[in-house]
Structure formats: C-alpha cells, structure tokens
Amino acid sequence: MESEGFQRNVLQSLDQDARNGLTPIKLRAKSAKFAKATVKAQMASFKRFGVWADWDHPYLTLDPEYEAAQIEVFGQMVFKRYIYRRRKPVHWSPSSRTALAEAELEYPEVHVSKSMYAIFKLLTTPTKDGLLDEFPKLSLAIWTTTPWTIPANAAVAVNSKLQYAIVEVQSPSPDVTSSSEDGKKRIGSVLKGSKIPFFIVALDLLSTLESKWNVKLAVKKTVFGSDLENCRYAHPINGEECPVVIGGDYITTESGTGLVHTAPGHGQDDYITGLKYNLPIISPVDDEGKFTEEAGIFKGLDVLGDGNAAVIDHLDQLSSIIMVEPYKHKHPYDWRTKKPTTTAQWFASVEGFREAAMDAISQVVWTPSQGVVMGLQIPTRFEFYFASISDLSSPLQRLKNPSLHFNPSQLPVTHLPTRFTSLLGKYIFASLFFLFVSLDFVDVIAKLIMFSFSFSIYRINDGFGENPVKQPFECDD
C-alpha cells in the first residue's frame, strides 16, 4: 500500500498546475505507479549485487493479498477483545498527518524550544499543613519546554522523596525588571511586579534558579513532596481547580523547578500519572498541529509556532510568567519530513497477545541463525522487541477521532467515503459490525479486498466530488 512517503514524493514532483484538480484517487494511482517503479529499481540493484531471492514473488504491502491478510488478523484481534477503548498518546506528525512509531523518529540535538518558568496559584492545602495560612500568596513554580501544552494541563506532579522549599524573592537585580529583546531571555511579569508571591521549588535547585532568574531566594519553610499531594491550584488559563499529584522517577533536580506541569494528553510519563489519578486526558490539537475549539482563544493557531507564543503572552498578561528562555535539547522529528512532531493521538494494545507472539518467535527457524541486525542476533532482536514493547509504544491505527470507538453513529454517512480512502477505512468497515456478525463476515470482506474491491471503493469516493489534494492525506503504512 502507498505510504505517505510515496504520496509526498509524487506531490513534490508535480508543479502547482498539476496539483490543481488532483483528487485522492488520482494521487493514489500516481503513488502506486511510483511505488512499483521504486520496487523495480531496487530489485535491479539487488540483482546486480548478487542477492539471491524469489524475485518473481516479491513481498509487497500494496498487494491486495497483503491487505486482505491484515483485515483477517485485525478481525481476529477485535473478536478476541485485544482492541479496547482506552486513550493513549503517541507521536503525531502534523507535516505528514500521521502517527509515528519510535523507529520513525529522529532526535537532533539542535532543536531549540522556548522554555518557560511559570507559577500556578495554590488554592487549598491539606488542613493539617496550613501552608496558606502562613503564606497566603503561595504558588507552584513549574518549568516546561512545551508551553503550548498548558491548555491541556490537568495537574502538577512532584517527587514524593524530594525536599521542596517555600521561597521568597529578595533583592532582585536591577536587570531583572527589563526584558531581553534579543531572543535569549525574557523576564516575565511575575518578577516585575511590586508584590512577588511566595514560590514552591525543589530545595536542591535553589542556587540554579537564583542564577537563572538573577534574584536572591530566601527559604521560609521546607516540606517533602509527599506533603504537597492533594493540594489544589488554579489552572492558569481557565481557573479550574487542579490537583498536585505524586509523579514518578522522571521528576528530578537536573533541570527545571522540581515541579512538573502534567498534561496526560501530551506525553507518556504524564499519561501514566494521569491513569493513576484518573486525570482528564485533554488534547486540544488537530491533525494539522493546530489548536482546536477546546483550546478556546488559541483555536486555529499552530501549536509549534504562533500558538506557542500566544500561550506564553497570554500567561504573561495573567501575571504567571517568571521567565522565558531558549533551551537547546533533543526533540522528536518526523524522519520523512524533518519537521517536529506533537503528541495528539490515541490507540490500542499488545498486552493480550504478547505471550503468543513470544511463543511463536521461539518456534521460528531463523536463517541465518547467527545473523546480526542493529548489534543483536536476529532471534534475540525479535525476542527483545516483543518483550519490551508496550501499549504506549505501539500505535495500532491512525484515526483522526482520538478514540477507538466502533460506533456507526459516530461515523456520519457524509464522511464514510473519505474513511474508505485508507486501509484503516477497511479495518473499520470490517469491524463496525463485530457485535452482531461472526469472523465469517470479516473473511468475506477480506476476500472482496483481495479481489480489488478496495479499488472500487476508491472509485466511488472519487465520484463524490472533485476534491483537489493540497497535502498528503492519512493512510496506514
């Protein structure tokens, strides 16, 4: 089946005039032709290298037989209830408009993010602590390299074993009242104000933060992270009450403030913490990497561009920003387009069949048995992969709707033709009826696809109107 990579290569080979009027079916036809030509060229190269293979029967994922086999396997997974409704984040590429597996990501060390130190106002604390009685204007100081995820904030996580300090800002440097315009550092409204609130930060990060913020921090009291659990703070944008929770070992004193802004819809560590505390999973980002209506005033803004800046500016107007500065670090990039990714999609599970997969691997006769791939012997590599893979790292399908629901009422008739333009559409078509049909029905669908029924569906879709293709659209690899 043609991947987004082939579609993108085809589009890049066409001028603007050729793109005008290019419908999905026409793009697929060109992509299939491009893919087959690429296979032919690669096959010729292998033959010149003396590679032995069954060249008359190549293994091609665009063959109807391959697609039919996928339908059969997917049908079995549905009936064995390996497909479930829990939502989970995976990497999503706005440039390719598809979910990405870990193997499809690159992590260049030259990416520069706008990191942000901000405060969230504390509202309540456990009655035994009485922190707000002693420090009425107390706030949690957080640090993040993804300000655009603040609209999805659901909690602040702390490390139960770390010591945290309630600090007061004293003797700010004269330079702290001015913002840098050269893009290197920007002092926020918090440090410019006449009444600076008390902050909570990790005790071990005190000297680091004094140096970064160019201030003197006086420790008024210390507490353990476990003492902060179940405190409540005001969401910096919508004002809703959110909890302070205990996170995992990912909360350290290597950087930041020791308090982690937690958005379960945008990261694996946050997601796991969210499951533990039953936090809402919010992901107000569409497949183009733009804020949705759920993000309120930020709707339509590019989260990695003007949307990120808009969130920072809005928080500064609300007197929540301590400081903004560039931060160079590794960041996931789409290996196809070399563009940053966001995490905004949710998929399924491998836990149900891990044991069966491991048993099957143990019965395989590998040739050559001592072959090495990526530093591991071939059998060991496959065993290691299936033993270590988790639900969080194995996206099963690529739906724009961020949940796995096989409910016909959620698929308007006007949208069905578009759904069928991907192999995923066939998955859904074969699975919508799983509550009242048998595997025999899925087998019938698989056989229809094997005999090019899928291409007939594309032709039907093409007849619903001329929809020029402006960018590569979604399809399953």
From TrEMBL:
Q: Which GO terms describe its molecular function?
A: aminoacyl-tRNA deacylase activity; ATP binding; isoleucine-tRNA ligase activity; metal ion binding
Q: Which UniProt keywords apply?
A: Aminoacyl-tRNA synthetase, ATP-binding, Ligase, Membrane, Metal-binding, Nucleotide-binding, Protein biosynthesis, Transmembrane, Transmembrane helix, Zinc
Task: Extract the coiled-coil ranges from the record.
Answer: none
Instruction: Report the top EC class in one word.
Output: ligase
Top-rank taxon of the source lineage equals Eukaryota
Family matches, as Pfam families? tRNA-synt_1
> Looking at the keywords, is DNA damage present?
no
Which residue numbers delimit the Aminoacyl-tRNA synthetase class Ia domain? Answer: 15-371
Which InterPro entries does this UniProt record tie to the protein?
A: aa-tRNA-synth_Ia (IPR002300), Ile-tRNA-ligase (IPR002301), Ile-tRNA_ligase (IPR050081), Rossmann-like_a/b/a_fold (IPR014729), Val/Leu/Ile-tRNA-synth_edit (IPR009008)
| GO cellular component terms given for this protein | mitochondrion
User: In its UniProt record, which GO terms are filed under biological process?
Assistant: isoleucyl-tRNA aminoacylation; mitochondrial translation
Has keyword Transferase?
Answer: no
* TM spans (from-to): 427-449
Which Enzyme Commission number(s) are listed? 6.1.1.5
This protein is called isoleucine--tRNA ligase
Source species = Lactuca sativa (Garden lettuce)
